[in-house]
Every structure is written in structure tokens, then in C-alpha cells.
């Protein structure tokens, strides 16, 4: 009985070790990299977190309409830092113009390509797919 329980625990541990790396990363098939959309608006939040940084923008609505919230995915903080970014390049309240590859399902989100911080006058860009290729140092 004890041997069966031990064998069960070992099997679970081996299975977790094998499948863990496969679940560590998701596909970027949700983004339409053949299209680029530009939005302007105000930064709601800049989440400098692993595994991916997220920029939340309240995009300007059409005349008389409320702003529309967009969620924009970037690469990891480490990759962005190597590209000249830091956690303070975008702050809540900053006015921005953002180029992005939109979500295929039409929801308000996408992969950030370029952002110009109109408040500071500085521009930043990233390539989600290039930074996320396996084996990058």
C-alpha cells in the first residue's frame, strides 16, 4: 500500500515536471499581426509585471461618447528594459498615441507596437513576437 502511494506521488511529480514548461507560455495567435490600429487616449494603468507588461488605455471615444478601455500586451519587463524602457515611461494620466496589432476577435485589446507619450514627448516600441522567441538571452 505504501509503495503504491509513493509510486503515485512520483508519477504526479514527473508529470508536473514534464508538462510545466509546455504551459509556461501562450500563443500569440490571438493578435492580428497583419493589421495595425492607432488609438489615442489616457493611460489608466501601466502594469510592469511578469510574464508580460500590460498597458491599460482609456481611448478617446467618438464625439459625445465615453472613452473605451483597451488592454495592450507587451513583452516581459526584462526584455523591455533591454530595449530602453523602464517602469516609469508611462504613468496614469499620461496622454498617449498607440500603434497596436489588434485582437482577432474584435475586442478592445492588442499587442503594442509603438507608443508615443504625448506628455513627455518620448516614443517607445517593442516587437512582442521577436522578444518572445525561445532561446533569447
- Label the structural class: alpha+beta
Share of helix among residues? 10-25%
Tally of helical runs: 3
The chain-level mean pLDDT equals 83
**CATH T-level topology of the domain at 37-131:** OB fold (Dihydrolipoamide Acetyltransferase, E2P)
Task: Throw out a few tags for this protein.
OB fold (Dihydrolipoamide Acetyltransferase, E2P); alpha+beta; 3 helices; 137 residues; globular
Explain what the structure shows:
The structure is a single chain. With 137 residues, the protein is of the alpha+beta class. The chain has a domain at 37-131: OB fold (Dihydrolipoamide Acetyltransferase, E2P). It is 23% helix and 32% strand. It has a five-stranded mixed β-barrel with strand order 1-2-3-5-4. A hairpin with a 6-residue loop joins strand 1 and strand 2. It is globular and about 70 Å long. 19% of the residues are buried.
Amino acid at each position: 500500500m505504501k509503495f503504491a502511494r509513493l509510486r503515485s506521488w512520483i508519477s504526479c511529480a514527473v508529470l508536473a515536471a514534464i508538462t510545466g514548461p509546455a504551459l509556461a507560455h501562450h500563443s500569440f495567435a490571438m493578435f492580428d499581426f497583419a493589421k495595425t490600429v492607432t488609438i489615442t487616449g489616457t493611460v489608466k494603468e501601466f502594469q510592469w509585471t511578469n510574464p508580460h507588461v500590460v498597458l491599460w488605455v482609456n481611448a478617446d471615444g467618438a464625439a459625445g461618447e465615453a472613452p473605451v478601455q483597451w488592454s495592450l500586451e507587451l513583452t516581459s519587463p526584462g526584455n523591455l528594459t533591454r530595449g530602453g524602457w523602464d517602469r516609469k515611461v508611462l504613468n496614469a494620466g499620461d496622454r498617449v498615441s498607440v500603434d497596436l496589432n489588434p485582437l482577432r476577435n474584435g475586442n478592445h485589446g492588442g499587442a503594442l507596437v509603438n507608443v508615443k507619450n504625448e506628455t513627455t514627448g518620448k516614443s517607445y516600441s517593442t516587437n512582442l513576437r521577436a522578444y518572445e522567441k525561445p532561446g533569447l538571452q
